[in-house]
Amino acid sequence: MHNQIPRRVEAFIGETVHVARKICGDHFLSLYLFGGLVYGEFKETSDVDLLFILDEECSEETKTKLEKALETVEIKDGFLKTDKENALFYIFAYRTALFKSHFVVRLKSLKEMNLKRLFIEGRGFDLRFGMTLFPLGPSRLVIRNVLAGGIIVYGDDVINTIAMPKPSPSDFNKSLVMSLFMSVFGALFSFMSRSGTRFSLEAFKWYIINAHSFLIDKPSNVKLAESFIRSRVGQIIFLSRFSRLRKDYSRDLVFAVFCPLCIIYLHFKLLRTITR
Length: 276
Fold this sequence. Notes:
Layout: H1 7-24, E1 28-34, E2 49-54, H2 60-76, H3 87-95, E3 102-106, H4 107-111, H5 115-121, H6 139-148, E4 151-155, H7 169-190, H8 196-216, H9 222-232, H10 237-247, H11 253-275
Parallel strand pairs: 2-3
Antiparallel strand pairs: 1-2, 1-4
Helix pairs in contact: 1-2, 7-8, 7-11, 8-9, 8-11
């Protein structure tokens, strides 16, 4: 496996492969690793982003069984951030893409590049009002980053046969909208829970990666995005605070409160690089 992956992560991935093969059999086609780990980034706040690809014949019942089994493995191995003392965080950890470590989709949805169906299958925001947020999300940008930035760790490399979606300027602006939504939520939640600042960290990380990826027209990661921002915007204290919290997490009300403002500031600074 990739030589930058820590041993405990390798063990975790191996366990998920075993579980998927046991539950899905030949319907389990491929497993890809994406996100920060691919670039050698693994922090205290990191999750392990895995994309499981099933064939179309795999039943919905079997897919649901796999989802539940993967959640159990993630909790046991410490890769699903939970806060049982705070029901709201607990729900978001299990039912959205913010903190979980696995996404299960079907090959047909990928080949057809059916973004809405992929959002549903991967349980991107598996809450009652989740699909109302789909039009606001930079779906083409997110899917492109996942597929083009991933490495195969099991099965056939089916992604090589898939045409990547082309992000549009609207995806750049949608990154702002969704990141602001998350960061405002994080600011409010930080006053109620120690886990609240995790939402602010995710919002800021998600924004800088997506914005940088759009501007360079290829997948990005936190380190590259931070370096790019410093080169275009200059050294800002907020970036240093962001890096520190990713290494050593704690509730930080100052970071959480100023996160939405900083995202807006960066967006309009970066927007100038497009309009010049």
